[in-house]
Amino acid sequence: MRGRPSIFDNDTIIKKAQQVFWTKGYTATSLDDLLQAMGIGSGSFYHQFKGGKKELFSLALKQRRAAFREFEERLHKAEFPVELIRDFFLGIARTDLGSHVCGCLISNTVVEMASLDADLEREAVAIMKDVEQLYTNAIKAAQQNGQLSNQTDPSLLGRYLITFYNGLNITRRMYPDQDQLSALIILQMEIIR
Q: What is the pTM of this model?
């Protein structure tokens, strides 16, 4: 006997839930917030996500990780990967006010889960370390092919970039102005030359 077929697209409803988590944080997001955003009832929710809100949040984190993997593929194909990283950071400055106020879902999760849920904190930290590694790999390749004059240890520069990324996601809440953020990013990225 077959189970009931799924009547919705999981990727789409997870993306909708991700938006709620990003805006409100894990703790402040209620089941009603999620049901309303996803457009499903509680029965469908628990049928699809037997682990409840935590399972859904974990899936939202995995969806964000997939987006970083897409960026990693673009970096591998880029003729000038460090320029692509610069463009990524400048793209943050150009986002809308709502995005600036929310910061980064993954960075927010590392902070929020530090004393709340070790499993979710580990997931978020692993994603940030993956991003740090892709920065490190791109910098190492750029150094080897002569595109980067700064010959500092690539792992240190990768850590510098993830530190800057995390700090930027707080700073853009304080100064949600595209021009100010762009100027700050250009200044910070001078180290990766």
A: 0.90
